[in-house]
Amino acid sequence: MISVNDFKTGLTVQVDTDIFTVLDFQHVKPGKGAAFVRSKLKNLRNGNVVEKTFRAGESIGRAIIENREVQYLYNSGSEYTFMDNETFDQFNLDKKQLEWELNFLKENMNVNISSYQGEILGIQMQNSVELKVIETEPGVKGNTAQGATKNAKVETGLNVQVPLFINEGDVLLIDTREGKYISRA
């Protein structure tokens, strides 16, 4: 058990039967009445963000999340197969669990998997990945004052806004948190 007074950003807790990570919190001491903690929590099972208020000093369950490195092998339909790098056990995740991550996931890529008491909650990718441009229109010099961009499609199917000098076949560094171009690799 953990007191809500000890909340920190990134802490994982169990409220009722759901597992949450603390995104934001604020200790409030009103002039009249009891103190409380206002928090913003992200549900790790479905991704919903909720706001909850707790009485100061209230105890809730601490959720210990296990992270381990796995390798993405292949997909067949809506099932994506991963292999544990230590035990070589293979398991499948459904496409619904990987919606955002599929924009960056390539075969044989290593990612971290998060689980709670054997239940797989999702995967965490590195902050940036290298992806090859497969389709983009040629850059045209002209009426641009600064920062002109164009659309480019990378090997995973993600469309990214890139500078005009990027060509097909270039390998780019893409931010996995926002899906934006960082630089050439």
Radius of gyration in whole Å, from Cα? 21 Å
How many domains, in number, for the residues? 3
Calculate the mean pLDDT score and round it.
88
Structural class computed from helices and strand pairing = mainly beta
Number of strands: 16
Order of helices and strands: EEEEEEEEEEEEEEEE
**Largest sheet entry:** 6 strands, antiparallel
Write down the CATH topology of the largest domain: SH3 type barrels
- What portion of residues belong to β-strands? over 45%
How does this model look, in words?
Helix content is 0%, strand content 55%. A hairpin with a 4-residue loop joins strand 15 (171-175) and strand 16. With 185 residues, it is an all-beta fold. The protein folds into 3 domains: 2-62, SH3 type barrels, CATH 2.30.30.30; 66-124, Beta Barrel (OB fold (Dihydrolipoamide Acetyltransferase, E2P)), CATH 2.40.50; 128-184, Nucleic acid-binding proteins (OB fold (Dihydrolipoamide Acetyltransferase, E2P), Beta Barrel), CATH 2.40.50.140. It starts with a strand and ends with a strand. The radius of gyration is 21 Å and the shape is flat. It has strands at 2-3, 12-15, 18-28, 36-43, 49-55, 59-62, 66-76, 79-84, 90-94, 110-116, 119-124, 128-136, 149-154, 159-163, 171-175, 180-184.
